[in-house]
Specification:
By secondary structure, the protein is α/β, with parallel strands linked by helices. 37% of the residues lie in helices and 17% in strands. The chain has helices spanning 2-15, 48-51, 54-59, 61-78, 83-93, 108-111, 169-181, 200-206, 234-249, and strands spanning 19-23, 97-102, 117-119, 122-129, 135-137, 156-160, 184-188, 210-214, 228-230. Strand 4 (122-129) and strand 5 (135-137) form a beta hairpin. Bound molecules: nicotinamide-adenine-dinucleotide and zinc ion (ZN).
Length: 252
């Protein structure tokens, strides 16, 4: 049963030329970065959903920096791509996948070698001034004081989109166009509950794309929007899809 679903997913991918992947925190779990929703060592003591809201940053910048931003920054210094990220890079190499739209801020798709990555929620790798909006990298900024301060005197923050903040309209528009024109959409490791990213699989489905979902837990897309749901971890499932595709391409 499982292997036939893998075979169906592999078959759909082999035939695709305009594939798009929508990825969420789940694809980086096997790289040691826990998601916000659900259990995960780092977030057992605090509620990241509360700290990841813009109002919390504006009202309690020191606390958000100490609890959330520094915790994530530490995780990201050692995290490396896993089989999920690497599998998507293979699909790009094969001419199947065009673009990855990620809600992650960890840069692991780029580290895996994927060339067209839309960072829907920004990137943790850069800092942005809350006053003058100038961006800078972490290395060029003194962390002697938390929050770090811009030369203009205002606080710096990671260049991410927090809850309560809008998505960049240019990125949103490009993502909607890609979703409307893709032939396969892989929806990996996302709970499909955070708008507007959660809406992209619906656009793809309406326009006739084949939707492959990978997540150990069912989501609102499962059995409704997804043509296939592989209920398992991203790395293992991507490995199995790529192996099944290699077998097909070799004519076995
Ligand atoms: P989310 O709502 O997309 O939930 C994570 C999903 O991953 C869940 O559906 C869960 O079942 C699934 N999952 C867990 N383990 C998995 C695995 N091994 N393989 C595949 N799927 C798995 O995301 P969230 O954690 O609630 O985060 C909300 C937002 O916070 C994100 O959109 C992002 O902007 C930010 N965030 C980013 C990172 C990162 O960059 N790695 C991590 C946490 C949160
Ligand atoms: Zn500034």
């Amino acid at each position: 049963m499982y292997s036939s679903l893998i075979d169906q997913a592999a078959e759909a991918c082999v035939q695709a030329t305009k594939g798009v992947a929508l990825t969420g925190a789940g694809i980086s779990v096997e790289s040691g970065i826990p998601p916000f929703r659900g259990k995960g060592g780092l977030w057992e003591k605090i509620d990241p959903m509360k700290y990841a809201h813009i109002d919390m940053l504006v009202n309690n910048p020191v606390e958000v920096w100490e609890v959330l931003f520094l915790g994530i920054a530490e995780l990201l210094t050692t995290a490396v791509p896993n089989a999920g990220h690497l599998g998507l890079q293979r699909l790009e190499q094969m001419g199947i996948l065009q673009t990855i739209i990620t809600q992650n801020v960890d840069g692991l798709h780029q580290k895996a070698g994927s060339s067209d990555v839309i960072e829907f929620h920004g990137t943790h790798a850069m800092l942005r001034c809350m006053g003058c909006h100038v961006r800078s990298d972490w290395q060029s900024v003194s962390m002697d004081r938390i929050p770090p301060v811009c030369p203009c005197g205002a606080y710096l923050r990671p260049d991410v989109v927090m809850f309560g903040e809008p998505i960049d309209v240019g990125l949103l528009r490009r993502s909607q166009i890609l979703a409307a024109n893709c032939d396969v959409m892989l929806v990996i490791g996302t709970s499909a509950t955070v708008e507007p990213a959660a809406y992209l699989p619906l656009i793809a489905k309406d326009r006739g794309a084949f939707i492959i979902e990978i997540n150990p837990e069912p989501t609102p897309l499962t059995n409704r929007i997804s043509d296939i749901t592989l209920l398992g971890p991203a790395g293992e499932m991507m490995d199995r899809i790529v192996a099944a595709m290699d077998k097909r391409r070799a004519g076995a």
